[in-house]
Each structure stands twice: as C-alpha cells, then as structure tokens.
From TrEMBL:
InterPro entries, per database record: IMPase, Inositol_monoP_metal-BS, Inositol_monophosphatase-like, Inositol_monophosphatase_SuhB
Protein name: Inositol-1-monophosphatase
Pfam family, one: Inositol_P
Keyword Zinc: no
Coiled-coil region(s): none
Alphabetical keyword list: Hydrolase, Magnesium, Metal-binding
EC number: 3.1.3.25
GO biological process, one term: inositol metabolic process
Binding site for Mg(2+): E69, D86, L88, D89, D214
Amino acid sequence: MARSAILNVMVQAAMKAGRSLARDFGEVQNLQVSLKGPGDYVSQADKKAEEIIYAELRRARPDYSFLMEESGVIEGVDSQHRWLVDPLDGTTNFLHGIPIFAVSIALERQGQIVAGVIFNPAMDELYTAERGGGAFLNDRRLRVSGRIKLVDSVIGTGVPHIGRGHHGNYLVELRNVMGEVSGVRRMGAAALDLAYVAAGRLDGFWENGLSPWDIGAGIIMVREAGGFVTDFDGGQDVIESKSIVAGNEAIQRALVKTLKKPI
Ligand code: IPD
Ligand code: CA
Ligand code: CA
Ligand code: CA
C-alpha cells in the first residue's frame, strides 16, 4: 500500500536519525553520557538523533507541536497536531553495545494517534502504520499472532529501572504472568516490544510507567495489525494512564486478567 505524504516525512526523519544512531553505535565508547536520574541515561547520540528528527519534521510541517523525550514540549501554532518523538528507544541497550534500539515517531491529530514509525537501524527494520491503512514491516503487511492460549504464548515486558517506582507491583505481575505463559522476554525497548507484537513475534506485552513517546507509534502499530491495546484496567486511554497491555484479542484479554490476580 502506498504511504501518505506525511508518513513519508516520518519515515525520512526516522531513517536519517537511525543512520546517525548507527554511526554513533560504532563509536559508543567515545560518546558523552549523562544521568537524568538513577539508572536513566542520555547520550550525545540521543540528542543528535532528536535534533535531526526535529529539523526534518519542522521543515515539513512548521506549525505542528512537539512532545519529545529529550527537549520536552515545543508548542506550535497548530496545537491539534502533535509529534511524539523518542529519538532513541533503548538507550541502555545502545550504551551497552546491544543492537536492540529504535527511533519512534508518532503523529497525533486532536489527541488521536493517526500514524507511527519505528525504525531499528541495526536490523534495518522499518515499521510503519497509518490509521485505517494497516501496519507494515518494510513492505510486508503485519498481523498479530494467532496463538490464543496463554500457555503457548511468549510475552514481552519492561522491568522498571532503579529510579522508578512500582517494583512491588511489578514482582506480583511478573509472578502471575510467569506462572501461565510459555516464556517472558525483556528486550529493553518498549517501541520494539510493541512492533514485535504487531509482527506476531511476541504474543503480548505489558509495562507500567511508560511515556507517550515510548508507546505512541507502537499503539497504532499493534492496532493496525489487528491487535488490542488497553491500560491495566482495560481502558482505552493508554497514553494518559501510562500502563499498557497489548496483544492479539485473546492474549490481551487474558493478560489483563492475569496481571490483576491477587497474591
Ligand atoms: C526505555 C525503554 C525501556 C523501558 C523504559 C523506557 P528509553 O526508553 O523503552 O524498554 O522499559 O521504561 O524508558 O529511555 O531507552 O528511551
Ligand atoms: Ca530515556
Ligand atoms: Ca523510550
Ligand atoms: Ca529515548
């Protein structure tokens, strides 16, 4: 399916930033790194990639607003359109030489996500989705997995880092899920976790405490691949609630129940 003009702009921005990340990944030991909080790193590579994305998107749509991980909010004349930008999802992986990281860009129109792009330059995998137009990995249309039983499923998750709360809750969630599924994976990049759900590689995913830039593109990717995404209570306003449960219909529903089981 042909991409819209705006999706092409997002793809160009993500690929340009991705190439910059790939170059920096080869020289990772020379990068300047600073701490934003306990366990929460940012490097020159994150900042450079964000500058590239900002310049590309700004040039194409000068009026749109931005919410970016490293620069925060930049209000444009048009507040109905907002870019959600994570220039490097998986900074910890990146800084440890683990090639599981991605650029993630989403576009919101009047609070609804209408397009998303996730690009993993190390694997040359480009995920794209537009509302009503399906989700794609490079040129291949995506479909969530067909497994319907938790016992057969592989589920992704994100473990809160040292500076984040919810650890007690997280251990209960993990124990509940571990007891019912075939395997649990922690890849370290939420945008890719969601892209993998869309691609049917993971049957489901859950994480708490994520930000709009981590999940904006991933949410539309999963939904356009025929999957379901809610918060931990089954609600649709995932970005607001910061908690996310994704998967095919059967696994997503079962996961929401399993996560909540009392000790
Ligand atoms: C992080 C990754 C990670 C998730 C963290 C995020 P960053 O994003 O998505 O998988 O567990 O909560 O903050 O900081 O590498 O862009
Ligand atoms: Ca970060
Ligand atoms: Ca992120
Ligand atoms: Ca990031």
